[in-house]
Amino acid sequence: MARKPSKTLTEAELRLMDVLWEKGSATVAEVTAALPPPPIAYNSVLTTMRILEQKGYVTHDEAGRAFIYRPLVERDQAAQSAVGHVLSRFFDNSAGGLALRLIEQERPSSDELARLKALIEQYEEER
Predict the structure, then answer these.
(1) Domain residues for 38?
(2) Cβ distance 70 to 58 under 8 Å?
(3) pLDDT value of residue 24
């Protein structure tokens, strides 16, 4: 039986979405040309764009023989979906657990620490 398609972006899909988010809309040829190394073959980009369309991340308009693809999902929405996926799979839906893991792995910058402290104070006041 075929696997259900994932709602999260693969690494290859994210590379293409980065181009579309940057450009706003593009043909397959334009996406292929705009990709950073390593290059991806035109047919692979075309196939991946179709997959992204099936997943609901992009849509297309026809311009002559070319399809012009544009994102339906903003970068922030995709990031939120990816974080939600990680939360449910690895952290039992605990945002605090994920935050602790991230802070334990890499020391936040001074600005980030200040923002974290302000959030903690805000949450404590709301209790």
Answers:
(1) 11-71
(2) yes
(3) 97
**In a domain? residue 43:** yes
- Judged by DSSP in three states, 113 sits in helix
Please give the average per-residue pLDDT across 74-99, as a whole number.
93
Q: What is the CATH number of the domain that holds 51?
A: 1.10.10.10
Residue 114, both tokens? 């200040």
State how far the Cα of 33 lies from the Cα of 30, in Å rounded to an integer.
Answer: 5
Structure tokens at 28: 């397959």
Rounded distance between C-alpha atoms, residue 47 and residue 60, angstroms: 14
| pLDDT confidence band for 8 (50 / 70 / 90) | confident
Looking at the domain assignment, is residue 36 inside a domain? yes
DSSP element (H, E) containing 61: strand 58-63
Domains identified in the chain, total number = 1
Distance (Å, whole) CA 94 – CA 63: 46
Structure tokens at 104: 């334990």
Q: At which residue do the structure tokens 């706003």 appear? A: 24
